[in-house]
């Protein structure tokens, strides 16, 4: 059996369908995946903290964010790395680490992302629009302060897929087509 390595990073704002896409790619190719949220949960557990308490620590101590991102980068670079890495900054990390992989940004407009969040979690479109805008703003401020970048900047991505008007199967098919064309 060969050594696995990162083949694709999947990034996008909340509600853009990255988790659904990753699940489809895992089923299609039999690949493993690493989600940046998993690294967060593992580190909270390692520190003996609840997710809420660890989340609060991350917002008050930017060094903790740096440590989490360093852990993600370390796992992406390691022998036996998962084939798919999903996080808002995984494309940037693969780019900066010179990993030879597809770096995908899934782009979905604000209204559609809000509709998807409501379908998944409930609430109203207005609430989801407001929550998404707040989260994007807070994250943008944090990522700019930490690294001088925004996740959605196009520089690191080898493909930007506008998935606003695409269903899950269409997104999966488009990404598979791209992966197979670049293989």
How would you characterize this protein structure?
With 183 residues, the protein is an alpha/beta fold. The protein has a domain at 8-109 and 155-165: P-loop containing nucleotide triphosphate hydrolases (Rossmann fold, 3-Layer(aba) Sandwich), CATH 3.40.50.300. The chain is built from 8 helices and 5 strands. It has helices at 18-29, 36-46, 51-60, 62-77, 90-96, 110-121, 125-147, 168-182, and strands spanning 8-12, 33-35, 84-86, 102-107, 159-162. Strands 2-3-1-4-5 form a 5-stranded parallel beta sheet. Helix 2 (36-46) crosses helix 4 (62-77) and helix 3 (51-60) crosses helix 4. The radius of gyration is 16 Å and the shape is globular.
Task: Compute the average pLDDT.
Answer: 92
Question: CATH topology of the domain at 8-109 and 155-165, anyone?
Answer: Rossmann fold
Reported CATH architecture of the domain at 8-109 and 155-165 = 3-Layer(aba) Sandwich
Rg over C-alpha atoms, rounded to the nearest angstrom: 16 Å
In terms of structural class, how would the helical and strand content be classed? alpha/beta
Largest sheet: 5 strands, parallel
How would you name the CATH homologous superfamily of the domain at 8-109 and 155-165? P-loop containing nucleotide triphosphate hydrolases
Beta-strand fraction estimate = 5-15%
- Please write the CATH class name of the domain at 8-109 and 155-165: Alpha Beta
| Count of helical stretches | 8
Give the strand order of the largest sheet, numbering strands 1, 2, ... along the chain.
2-3-1-4-5
């Amino acid at each position: 059996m060969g050594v696995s390595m990162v083949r694709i990073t999947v990034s996008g704002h909340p509600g853009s369908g990255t988790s659904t896409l990753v699940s489809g790619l895992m089923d299609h190719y039999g690949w493993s995946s690493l989600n940046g949220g998993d690294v967060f949960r593992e580190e909270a557990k390692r520190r003996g903290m609840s997710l809420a308490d660890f989340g609060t620590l991350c917002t008050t101590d930017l060094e903790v964010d740096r440590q989490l991102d360093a852990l993600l980068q370390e796992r992406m670079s390691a022998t036996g790395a998962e084939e798919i890495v999903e996080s808002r900054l995984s494309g940037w990390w693969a780019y900066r680490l010179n990993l030879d992989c597809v770096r995908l940004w899934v782009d979905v407009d604000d209204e559609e992302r809000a509709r998807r969040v409501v379908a998944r979690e409930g609430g109203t479109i207005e609430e989801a629009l407001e929550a998404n805008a707040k989260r994007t703003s807070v994250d943008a401020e944090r990522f700019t302060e930490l690294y001088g970048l925004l996740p959605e900047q196009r520089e690191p991505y080898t493909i930007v897929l506008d998935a606003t008007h695409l269903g899950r199967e269409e997104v999966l098919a488009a990404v598979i087509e791209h992966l197979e064309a670049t293989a």
